């Protein structure tokens, strides 16, 4: 058996079922070997950013990694941004990156580059070039163990062509992950004391595994029993929410709003989450969002056993008998009237099917989504974990492959959608049940906000033109049709309602282009901190959301 | 003046006129500063691969760098593949990569990554994070000097947000490049002796600056005088060719063909070119294409003065009075009959306007292009220097901005075109005179060839599906329309002829989708070496081309 065949068998034996691929010549033996392993599905992407983003979305929903198959350093480069998102979300992804044959590397041929350096940033815990066929599967098993974690992340195995085509490959079992430690008694007691002493001035900040159903129930019990608040990190990897599940308030993207959420806290307890910081720096503003004097505790870090740690805290606080605070079922009315991004979010809230998966990269247009879907049937929310735009469509495609029985909604801004739009082709090819909703406000609307926030004075015509993507106007319906995905353009609320209802009841991919005005146009973000005292001058739905403690 | 304003003035003072941009929050002060410098044009791209590829194409034609403006490590990542192409072509590109404010970096916010590591691969000679506003312009001037060379290449200046917005920026002059050495007398004499002793078994292999008009004339004189052959590297950065210019035969992409071209040589003289190696490795094949026993000489390396070195060799060989062998004007007939990729190439040869720029990434479909355009009016040919596909459309956009008075043709395979298709939007926005010709053969046709060449046995259904991009079929006319570019689909030779003639006489961007069968389908590439003796069983046009010494 050659290296490629043994490698695919090693992956399949470890339960890896999907490979998102964009191969080239150096991967041809791997491609040929696909037919030797019926347990491995190969999903072709037209661009590597689609393959890596799909692997991320798949792993978030399948709770296990997919492989990617990428063509040398340049193929990996094209997939880096979505691998960055996976890394920041601690999502397991196994990259198989083809390389030149070992004897060819010294010739510095056209596609030669230092692949290990390209991989290092997104794959800090495992980058290895497998130099011998006999050792390939051992390397692969080690890569898999590293990427599955805890904490989980991106591992990169570089596969020279001759190691792939060489005979003598031997499949290897993947060793189980080492047991993860739970919080020790001292740490748990310290946190329990803080909760007992000043519950209402304490918050639990939940990330990653803490945002899954079972864990949420226990954490909600602790919060109810002690008076503590529950926050979710600003960009959760995967968050289970909706009617019947504990409600958790997300930290806002805008540091000005996040500071309001966190003000007055004396203790902040991290549960598989990172201490909150501002997304960007702004002149004269703090980057650290933890209020001065607030003590930060870590109940469970990314490499630790979250479930066991939460259980210990439940016991230590005596909250076992408490009842979690569950979100009541509640949907907004079907929207009417002037068509805006908020109406899109409202229609989604009204129509969202049971167990849907929402991948939200709607940027400014999605600001009301958390509010309008809070009481919708239970669903999973995936978000842009690393801030590298262009994740929504690929990630949704991967999620749909992991969960073929669930409806996936991909929400994207127009600017973001143009990054990895090729994902639509994979959706059409694989007949994935994804409804892509593109908010076409014809601008990098968030940058109009940011231009104000950073205090960049004197934005003239040239500067403004850099944020304006409406000339020429993008036609997402034609773009989708060009890749085999049926699309609908909605310019009124009623058109959108109809299009969404149709897409949700029809299997296969659909795209809806929602032509909406930018959401935050009328708002003076620079003066937001001054407004937050009264909320009076904020847009009404945003002010309502803030009052309800559900902050965009 | 703040850092951003001083930086833009420093660039403009050094003659930099264009910035290809895809900015984010951390670049907002740079964006705001654009309006303070009327000499700087900002060209927005919807994806960073477009910005970097356009900067490459611009520099090839303008003979000076453009700047790019990219958003942190992920923005740079998205532009890496085309920067790889620029690096391999030794094309000057100055990346300005925004970063978080210096005081924000330690918080590891969502978009934080090690930008210097991301840049290292494509930008080995200059990567620097400018940490103080007062030093920014000195760093920028140094980056520019490095990137302009010789040899020229990619330089990356990382610009933290606070260094950009901080006051105290002072524009700096860009020092002139250090003088480049020419080949010394001993080297010139050694090469002249080889040419005198066995001219007919000697070849000059020309790359980069050696493929420009003035240099070509002198090199052709040397070849005519000594009997040596002239070869161009397989993927030239920029090659001037056509009627009235010396004809130079390109080394073939297929190592099997290149070996035929180079066989029998006793001396190979490199003129700003790299010694030829196989693009990929193949089981049991040599990677080094230099025939055994052939001696390789370097007349001028990338960091040296090519013009002076060639002049010295002209003098040493006594070829000053020789006449260069100039290509006679000759166009193919307008094609008729069954529509194939070869007919597209023939129609281009028939219709190519004077001083056109051809960016060729047609892969297998472009195999006959060199033959059919050899005697067309003089034109510039740009090619895929680093093998990272997705360069044609961005590079063509950049070339059109550098040469607004010339027609640009971008030739791309369907697979390649889908990598950075967003370039069409920039073409529409800037009203660029680019005719994009997409060869839609609905497959990664070159990989069908490569699958045979690497001897990957047992290509089953799954393997073949990885090379098939026809399900669903891509509709490039709709894709172009979605980005504001008018398009035409050609399914017959006559339709293509009409569409090309129309596009060439109409200003602004056009796309022509040529629906053609894969070019090399019927050909058994595995047995190619056995066929080369007789040429009888090769496709007729290919055999003709080989006989004429014009090898694809």
TrEMBL record, chains A, B:
<dbReference type="GO" id="GO:0030976">
    <property type="term" value="F:thiamine pyrophosphate binding"/>
</dbReference>
<dbReference type="GO" id="GO:0044281">
    <property type="term" value="P:small molecule metabolic process"/>
</dbReference>
<dbReference type="InterPro" id="IPR012001">
    <property type="entry name" value="Thiamin_PyroP_enz_TPP-bd_dom"/>
</dbReference>
<protein>
    <submittedName>
        <fullName>Acetolactate synthase-1/2/3 large subunit</fullName>
    </submittedName>
</protein>
<feature type="domain" description="Thiamine pyrophosphate enzyme TPP-binding">
    <location>
        <begin position="372"/>
        <end position="513"/>
    </location>
</feature>
<dbReference type="GO" id="GO:0050660">
    <property type="term" value="F:flavin adenine dinucleotide binding"/>
</dbReference>
<comment type="similarity">
    <text>Belongs to the TPP enzyme family.</text>
</comment>
<feature type="domain" description="Thiamine pyrophosphate enzyme N-terminal TPP-binding">
    <location>
        <begin position="1"/>
        <end position="108"/>
    </location>
</feature>
<dbReference type="Pfam" id="PF02775">
    <property type="entry name" value="TPP_enzyme_C"/>
</dbReference>
<dbReference type="InterPro" id="IPR029061">
    <property type="entry name" value="THDP-binding"/>
</dbReference>
<dbReference type="InterPro" id="IPR045229">
    <property type="entry name" value="TPP_enz"/>
</dbReference>
<dbReference type="GO" id="GO:0003984">
    <property type="term" value="F:acetolactate synthase activity"/>
</dbReference>
<keyword id="KW-0786">Thiamine pyrophosphate</keyword>
<dbReference type="Pfam" id="PF02776">
    <property type="entry name" value="TPP_enzyme_N"/>
</dbReference>
<dbReference type="InterPro" id="IPR011766">
    <property type="entry name" value="TPP_enzyme_TPP-bd"/>
</dbReference>
């Amino acid at each position: 058996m050659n290296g490629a065949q043994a490698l695919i068998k090693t992956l399949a034996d470890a339960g890896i079922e999907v490979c998102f691929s964009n191969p080239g010549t150096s991967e041809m033996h791997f491609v040929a070997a696909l037919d030797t392993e019926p347990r491995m599905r190969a999903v072709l992407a037209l661009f590597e950013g689609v393959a890596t983003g799909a692997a991320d979305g798949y792993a978030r929903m399948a709770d296990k990694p997919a492989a990617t198959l990428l063509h040398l350093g340049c193929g990996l480069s094209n997939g880096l941004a979505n691998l960055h998102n996976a890394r920041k979300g601690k999502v397991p992804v196994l990259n198989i990156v083809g390389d030149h044959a070992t004897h060819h590397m010294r010739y510095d041929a056209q596609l030669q580059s230092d692949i290990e350096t390209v991989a290092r940033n997104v794959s800090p815990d495992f980058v290895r070039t497998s130099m011998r066929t006999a050792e390939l599967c051992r390397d692969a098993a080690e890569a898999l163990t590293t990427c599955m974690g805890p904490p989980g992340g991106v591992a990169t195995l570089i596969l020279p062509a001759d190691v792939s085509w060489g005979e003598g490959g031997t499949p290897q079992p993947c060793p189980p992950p080492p047991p993860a430690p739970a919080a020790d008694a001292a740490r748990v007691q310290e946190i329990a004391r803080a909760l007992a002493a000043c519950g209402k001035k304490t918050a639990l900040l939940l990330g990653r595994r803490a945002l899954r159903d079972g864990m949420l129930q226990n954490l909600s019990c602790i919060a109810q029993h002690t008076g503590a608040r529950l926050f979710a990190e600003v960009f959760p990897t995967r968050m289970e929410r909706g009617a019947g599940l504990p409600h958790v308030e997300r930290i806002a993207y805008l540091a000005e709003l996040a500071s309001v959420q966190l003000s007055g806290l004396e203790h902040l307890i991290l549960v598989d989450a990172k201490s909150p910081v501002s997304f960007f720096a702004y002149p004269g503003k703090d980057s650290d969002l933890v209020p001065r004097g607030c003590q930060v505790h870590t109940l469970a870090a990314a490499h630790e056993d979250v479930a066991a740690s939460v259980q210990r805290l439940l016991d230590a606080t005596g909250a076992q008998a408490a009842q979690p605070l569950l979100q009541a079922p509640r949907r907004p009315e079907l929207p009417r009237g002037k068509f805006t991004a908020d109406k899109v979010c409202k229609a989604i809230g009204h129509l969202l099917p049971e167990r849907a998966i929402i991948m939200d990269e709607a940027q400014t247009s999605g600001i009301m989504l958390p509010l309008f879907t809070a009481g919708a049937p239970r669903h999973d929310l995936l978000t842009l974990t690393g801030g590298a735009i262009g994740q929504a469509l690929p990630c949704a495609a991967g999620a749909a492959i992991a969960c073929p029985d669930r409806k996936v909604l991909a929400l994207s801004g127009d600017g973001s959608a143009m990054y990895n739009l090729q994902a639509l082709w994979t959706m059409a090819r694989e007949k994935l049940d994804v409804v892509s909703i593109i908010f076409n406000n014809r601008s990098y609307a968030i940058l109009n906000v940011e231009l104000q926030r950073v205090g960049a004075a004197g934005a003239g015509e040239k500067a403004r033109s850099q944020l304006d993507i409406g000339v020429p106007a993008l036609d997402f319906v034609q773009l989708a049709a060009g890749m085999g995905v049926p699309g609908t353009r909605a310019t009124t609320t009623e058109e959108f309602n109809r299009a969404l209802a149709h897409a949700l009841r029809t299997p296969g991919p659909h795209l809806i282009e929602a032509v909406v005005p930018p959401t935050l146009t009328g708002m003076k973000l620079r003066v937001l901190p001054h407004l937050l005292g009264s909320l009076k001058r904020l847009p009404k739905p945003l002010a309502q959301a803030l009052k309800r403690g559900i902050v965009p």
